[in-house]
Design a protein that fits this description.
The chain is α+β, with helices and mostly antiparallel strands and 380 residues long. It has helices at residues 2-22, 39-72, 88-116, 152-158, 254-274, 281-295, 297-300, 318-321, 326-335, 349-359, 373-379; strands spanning 124-131, 134-139, 144-148, 180-183, 188-194, 199-203, 208-212, 218-222, 228-234, 246-252.
């Protein structure tokens, strides 16, 4: 049985090697760090290459001497080992040389680390806050704020039993509904913190990552030199959906960034105005279904069935089907409870009204309740 399995394994490896050699397999064969698109990422890459060459040369030297010694001083050649107690000269040499090598490597490494901390003289500041499981971006200089969550197509595909072909989705689990847009050739200070547990904001092309810790603010800076879209994700084990909070940075020329800021402010004003009117039940149900899928389905599941013993079901629950449960329903979404985070900061009055209306009229709940933004505003 062992030799049969070994033969199957070797056959599979040989087949993969032949496919790769003939071009039948197009895999990512990168064997090194990517260079990145910021000055710091370039310095980190150059430092990595310097240290790599140092250790490679040391390795070649050590193993060359070792194999030469094995070959020329083997017993079959009649070699007789020397007998000595110790050599003070050798001990001094093999102590001083490594110290000099380490100091030589530490100098450029320290310079790069110091440069990473020089966040002054920034042209703009972005505050990044980690939530379970999404990111909030505050543009401190432009008065903008929004949440960025996993793109809907990825979110639908990852659900148990979705039967969606993952290969049909571009950037599966690495795309978001709203990327962070930044201007190129500007020094941008990025502050990182968290609202609940420890997260880590990491985009490899930028050359660094920072922990996002509740109650603390870490900072770093970037100057993105090339327009493009750069992707990353949370690099800290932050809970159930840790693997589903990607980061997408879209770097654009300054004039395009200014136009984007204007567009976002207009959308924000329109959203604020929408909170002053009443919506039809159909409007609330359509919006609520989309918002539920994006924010609530990760725990309460797509059909409101919940996860037994962890997240309660909404389908048929008292809080979502009885008149006396309505105030608690609204309060629970606004302020959270136990494992459920508060959504009062994350969603507008119109959004929460839509979610509550949807949850009270979906999956057979059928209460007929229609909650308006003014009801949420009063509950706040």
């Amino acid at each position: 049985m062992f030799f049969k399995k070994l033969k199957e394994c070797l056959t599979g490896i040989t087949a993969l090697w032949l496919m790769a050699w003939t071009g039948a397999v197009h895999a990512e064969w990168g064997l090194n760090l990517t260079r990145g698109v910021t000055p710091i990422s370039h310095e980190v890459y150059d430092l990595h290459m310097l240290i790599l060459w140092v250790v490679t040369i040391i390795g070649i030297g050590v193993f060359s001497v070792m194999f030469w010694s094995i070959l020329h001083h083997r017993k079959s050649k009649g070699a007789v080992s020397a007998k000595f107690h110790h050599s003070t000269t050798a001990e001094i040499v093999w102590t001083i040389i490594p110290i000099l090598i380490l100091v030589g490597m530490a100098i450029p490494a320290t310079k790069t680390l110091i440069k990473m901390e020089q966040t002054g003289d920034a042209d703009m500041t972005i505050k990044v806050t980690g939530y379970q499981w999404k990111w909030k971006y505050d543009y401190m200089d432009d008065g903008l704020s929004f949440f960025s969550v996993l793109a809907q197509d990825s979110n639908d595909a990852r659900q148990p039993g979705s039967n969606i072909d993952l290969n049909s989705i571009d950037h599966y689990l690495l795309d978001v509904d709203q990327p962070i847009v930044l201007p190129i050739n500007k020094k941008i200070r990025i502050l990182t913190t968290a609202n609940d547990v420890i997260h880590a904001w990491w985009v490899p092309a930028l050359g660094w990552k920072r922990d996002a810790i509740p109650g603390f603010i870490n900072d770093n800076w970037i100057i993105i030199e090339e327009p493009g879209t750069y992707r990353g994700q949370c690099a800290e084990l932050c809970g159930k959906d840790h693997g589903f909070m990607p980061i997408v940075v879209k770097a654009v020329p300054e004039e395009e960034y200014v136009a984007w800021v204007k567009k976002m402010k207009m959308a924000k004003a329109a959203a604020a105005a929408s909170g002053d009117r009443d919506f039809s039940k159909d409007e609330l149900m359509a919006s609520g279904k989309e918002l539920y899928s994006k924010n609530c389905a990760v725990c309460h599941m797509a059909e409101g069935q919940g996860i037994p013993g962890t997240f309660p079901a909404l389908a048929g629950s008292a809080i979502a089907t009885t008149p006396e449960g309505l105030p608690d329903h609204i309060d629970r979404i606004l302020h959270g409870k136990n494992l459920m985070p508060p959504f009062g900061e994350q969603l507008s009055d119109a959004d929460i009204a839509a979610v509550v209306t949807y949850e009270r009229n979906a999956w057979g709940n059928d209460t007929g309740d229609v909650v308006q933004p003014k009801d949420i505003k009063a509950a706040r």
